[in-house]
């Protein structure tokens, strides 16, 4: 008997069928946003591809011919500066909203919110990840697009599984980390094949996490990262070939959310040795730590926390340095510590011992945290290398490409305009 795996079920559910791929409610029932259509030219879709944890120097390792070709034919940035904290969910939401994490509300991969009591937001908490309340502080590009009758399809993207402001992508899939890079690419192509709307999709996403996984496991530049790079690069080639075979022209924007720094059990700052036992609760730890005080023990905790530490610095949330643009959002924990790049804030002996491979979450200016940007397609010039820019600027670019006026954001198109044909 053939056993249906989770993967098979996902494919059955999403291959042109609406089980987990929902249809957006009619625009009449959706409140109009501030954005407006600025052009009526025939639509060339934008495909936003995220390669989680891809460092700009990963393209120089000689294993990414397809990405290198896209960069040579189009545009690449020397580097793209991520937003703080340099974690996956905060930066993916920044890329599609143009807002810093403090402004869009996805302030960490792990969060608590007094307004959503009893829930701890984590990547593996499917109920939380798909709950719009965590995402509703901002409006991602696919929501604005759908409100303007531009159809969207997301082959994984943080936030895309929630009905943000009541709106979902026309096609989306519930995250399945086991679905291969090729499988994700084929799913996106299948959605394009089965699209019955004459305008086609205007905005699509594709997400790959193999490079991030390998980077965590063995560190940047490791043999495992090289294998993952080659695999994801082949999937990008598969997409390019698949589009060509279908005579589809698209603007491809390839980004990463952050880089990766080597970490080691020999570079650990022990929170449990630094702070009075029982005076705090750890919300998250690693390259940075978020802490909540035990009620009544604030003064004792502050006395230990707010003094100088080797390889880490700690603040009350209101006093986090302005360069990090972090700490105003209610979801940022009361106390916050940031480790020096390559160091790890650890809550226990056991977690300290497990520290190995690579990590991210450090200051967004740290060289190891730099992210990648490549763009290619009819909207882009050829052979342009852009100086470093902030990842908040990707959102106004994407909005320009789909012909919509961007909502107010922290980004600006100016840094990317030299990349555009017109
Ligand atoms: P991190 O490296 O801790 O910032 O998180 C990266 C991980 O997030 C990836 O390895 C993915 O497995 C996971 N991830 C990415 N997108 C989603 C999603 N939509 N839902 C749940 N987990 C996801
Ligand atoms: Zn990531
Ligand atoms: Zn990661």
Shape: globular
Q: What is the number of helices?
A: 13
Q: What separation lies between the terminal Cα atoms?
A: 58 Å
CATH top level of the largest domain is Alpha Beta
How many strand units?
A: 18
Task: From the alpha carbons, calculate the radius of gyration and give it in angstroms.
Answer: 21 Å
What structural category characterises the helix and strand content? alpha/beta
CATH fold-level label of the largest domain: Alkaline Phosphatase, subunit A
What small molecules accompany the polymer chains?
Answer: adenosine monophosphate, zinc ion
Overall residue-averaged pLDDT value: 92
Major sheet: 8 strands, mixed
Count of discrete domains: 2
Strand order of the largest sheet: 5-4-6-1-7-16-2-17
Proportion in helices: 25-40%
- The CATH level-2 architecture of the largest domain is identified as 3-Layer(aba) Sandwich
Low-confidence stretches: 1-34
The CATH superfamily label of the largest domain reads Alkaline Phosphatase, subunit A
Strand content: 15-25%
Protein architecture, described:
Helix content is about 25%, strand content about 15%. The protein is an alpha/beta fold and about 425 residues long. It folds into 2 domains: about 300 residues, Alkaline Phosphatase, subunit A; about 90 residues, Gyrase A, domain 2. The longest helix is centred in the middle third of the chain and has 23 residues. The chain is globular, with a radius of gyration of 21 Å. The chain starts with 5 loop residues before the first helix and ends in a 20-residue tail after the last helix. The N terminus is likely disordered. Bound molecules: adenosine monophosphate and zinc ion (ZN) (2 copies). The site of one zinc ion has 5 residues, from helix 8.
């Amino acid at each position: 008997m053939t056993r249906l795996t989770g993967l098979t079920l996902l494919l059955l559910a999403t291959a042109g069928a609406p089980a987990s791929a929902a249809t957006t409610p009619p625009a009449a029932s959706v409140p109009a946003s501030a954005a407006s259509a600025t052009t009526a030219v025939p639509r060339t879709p934008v495909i936003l591809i995220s390669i989680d944890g891809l460092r700009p120097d990963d393209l120089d390792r000689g294993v990414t011919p397809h990405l290198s070709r896209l960069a040579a034919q189009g545009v690449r940035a020397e580097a793209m500066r991520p937003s703080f904290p340099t974690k996956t969910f905060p930066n993916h939401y920044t890329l599609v909203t143009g807002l810093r994490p403090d402004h869009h509300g996805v302030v960490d991969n792990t969060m608590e919110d007094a307004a959503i009591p009893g829930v701890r937001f984590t990547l593996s908490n499917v109920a939380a990840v798909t709950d719009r309340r965590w995402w509703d502080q901002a409006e991602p590009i696919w929501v604005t697009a759908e409100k303007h009758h531009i159809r969207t399809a997301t082959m994984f993207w943080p936030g895309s599984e929630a009905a943000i402001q009541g709106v979902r992508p026309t096609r989306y899939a519930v995250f399945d980390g086991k679905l291969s890079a090729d499988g994700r690419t084929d799913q996106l192509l299948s959605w394009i094949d089965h699209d019955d709307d004459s305008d086609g999709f205007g905005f699509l996403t594709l997400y790959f996490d193999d490079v991030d996984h390998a980077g965590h496991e063995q560190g940047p530049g490791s043999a495992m990262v090289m294998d993952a790079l080659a695999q994801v690069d082949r999937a990008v080639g598969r997409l390019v070939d698949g589009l060509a075979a279908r005579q589809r022209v698209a603007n491809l924007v390839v980004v990463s959310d952050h880089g990766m720094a080597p970490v080691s059990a020999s570079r650990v700052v022990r929170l449990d040795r630094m702070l009075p036992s029982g005076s705090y609760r750890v919300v998250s730890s690693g390259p940075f730590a978020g802490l909540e005080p035990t009620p009544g023990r604030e003064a004792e905790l502050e006395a230990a926390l707010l003094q100088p530490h080797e390889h880490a610095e700690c603040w009350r949330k209101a006093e986090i340095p302005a360069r990090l643009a972090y700490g105003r959002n209610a979801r940022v924990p009361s106390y916050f510590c940031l480790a020096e790049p390559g160091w790890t804030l650890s809550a226990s002996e056991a977690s300290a011992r497990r520290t190995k491979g690579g990590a991210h979450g450090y200051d967004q200016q740290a060289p190891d945290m730099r992210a990648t940007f490549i763009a290619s397609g009819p909207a882009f010039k050829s052979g342009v290398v852009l100086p470093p820019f902030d990842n908040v600027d990707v959102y106004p670019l994407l909005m320009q490409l789909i012909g919509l006026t961007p909502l107010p954001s922290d980004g600006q198109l100016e840094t990317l305009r030299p990349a555009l044909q017109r």
